[in-house]
Amino acid sequence: MTMINVAGLGIGMAATVLIVLWVQNELSFDRFQPDAENIYRAKVSLAVSPHENWIWETSQYVLGEHALKEIPEVENLARIQPNSYDELNFHYNGDLITEKSSAYVDDQWFNMFHYDFVEGSKESFLKNPFSLILTESAAKKYFGRQDPIGKLLKLDSNTYQVQAIVKDSPANSSFQFNVLIPLNAKLVNPKDKKDVLGWGQYSFMTFMKLRPGADVKRVSAKLTQIVKINRPGVKTAADFTLVKLKDIHFENDLMQSAFIHGNRKMVNVFIVLAVLLLITACINYVNLTTARASIRSKEVSIRKVVGANRAHLFGQFMSESILVSTLALLVSILIVQVALPWFRSFTDKHFADPLTSPVIWAIIGSTLLVSFLLNGLYPAVLLSSFRPLNVFRGKALLNFKDSGLRKALVVTQFTISVVLIIGTLVIFFQLRFMEKIDLGYNKAQVFTFSLPWKILGFDDKKNAVVLNTIKNELKKQGAIADVSMANTEIVNFTGSSSGGFDWPGRPKDFNPGVSPLQVDQHFGEMMHLKVAEGRWFSADIADQHNVLLNQTAVSVFHLRSPVVGQRFIHQGDTGAIIGVLKDFHYKSLHDKIGAVVVSDQSGEQSTFYVKTAKGNTQAAVGTAKNIWTKFAPDYPFSFNFLDESYNSLYKAEQQSSVLITLFALIAIFVSALGLLGLAAFAAEQKVKEIGIRKVLGASISHIVSLLSVNFLKMVVVASVIAFPIAWWAMSKWLQDFAYRINLSWWLFLSGAGIALIIALITVSFQAIKAAVANPVNSLRSE
Known about the structure:
- The protein is an alpha+beta fold and 782 residues long.
- The chain is built from 24 helices and 24 strands.
- Strands 1, 2, 3, 4, 5, 6, 7, 8, 9, 10, 11, 12 and 13 form a 13-stranded mixed sheet that branches.
- Strand 1 (39-49) and strand 2 form a beta hairpin.
- Helix 13 (404-436) packs antiparallel against helix 20 and helix 20 (651-685) runs parallel beside helix 23 (745-771).
- The longest helix has 38 residues, at 310-347.
């Protein structure tokens, strides 16, 4: 019994520690920054139409200058421009170094945010606009064991010098940038400076440190007014708000973001999961301890008769509880230590070592205290309250004969297990639904790569020649089955535009958000886009002015029928609607399909779609890389398979699915462990009854049924209780998906069935063991 207690509690505590570690990391994002309570980021809502707002985390560079001068509540201000959609390609000693995580920061960045400098200083970094700060991991990646300070890296036509090294950002920081560059580097070129200082340039995150007690709503209103005054005549209303630094991690209404955001709903789910796992583990201890109370009753009674008082006995049982909890803690620390490398890798979080981190020891200590109290109080009160005379007279130890509390605790355990099983099934089938759903196009065996805009420039005619040359070279390769071009990757097309579109009957104030997809003539055939009405683009040059709309666009634009043939203006180009496409999923299934306008404009499709010949994937990628090297030798070849890009959209859900499945299995295992102990004790209590029944001719199946039926009834009751809880919880989770499965009845019955089978196997193992035992041994003492 002690081994069951220690094992069940240790595994439960280890799972709880891992969950709480992840939760603590999520809830502590950016809170370590000095004055985090008073730091805010500007956020803008652009009313592109009466029914649609675009919400951005970026604002104008010049907004900061005006805010410092005109808003007394602003104590300090810092700006950052992450290179979210543009990798940096450094040249060093003939090698090409690609950096995917970098940002430009202004002069005040290091006065507002804390960094641990290992070498160099912020002063040396700010002296020269062509300076770099690297994190320790980036410096090691770039230069190995060489001293990085003073090293020169070439970026485009400029040479940058490494001026400082900082420690890697902690796991709970939003600012995960490996390279920082002075924002002044963007202001050296007069043309770039003019663009940066424009009031229409929403490309900088503006962080403000407000004076204590400042009215945040009032500051937000002042920011809105500043932009309104400096952008007279602009119809799109820009409404500014301020978001506290500590709340940025859980923002969920942005169109797109340079940061990786958390899901507050999933954090709450895992908090509940941690509590349930710990309760499940502790129930075993309470159940097994109270179940054996009748055996220990005479021991307690004799102690009382010889003079032990209730306080002594209470202390004894609490001591036993702390001993078991401590042993379980040692087991849990061992499990955490072994599992943490995998947990770090899987969650992509660099958690501190559990034996050196004060935070983790605080988590472990808290878990120990909670488990000690849950495990110790009730058994200690129960066992220390026996009345010796009642025990010696053979009266029941508890006030209710069938030990209803123990049954209630088993029901609680399996209610938790059934809820987790159903949750695991729902998540699994939702992920499977997303994997199997017809997206409206064929993404199999297709990879994409994009030519850098620095190679192409802004001359569409010249671009068209270069792009077609590359396309033709790709099509000649035997390993490549097909080639097409578009302006973006279709799997996660987040670009949107408002204004510049017109059609007959459009109200003057109606400018809905539109996703403009520019493709070549072959794109529809290669990607298997389905035309519901009309036709696809032809080789006729007139089609370069025409468009296709998806079905949602027809509905959103309120176009009269027939749609095909109507005049349509897109981005100033007048043409006609030549076809209507069936809706296709061009972004995550979290979002509803929006209006898409498809056009064929040569020179603007810089993303190549390459379909590999069957069995020639590696050869196709190698061929594409060789052709890339001819046209962009100074840039690394980077490509994405559409299948992988699609799966990456649901990385968070896939992680959650694995973790919930893992912790559900742990909860079921711990519950089964407790059930095994109770079944063993029940068999021990009825050993003589079983012996007599066997002598009188009872079969093994009868004995198994005798020992199992009560436990299985408890699992059935637990399932009935679990159904509404699971339905409510999973309905809330599925609300995050615009396209989702239905919560069918068979999912709930399957969850109950799995729990019932596990309970039956667990109890039957002990019941069969008791049923096949020799009755002579149990009846010998009689």
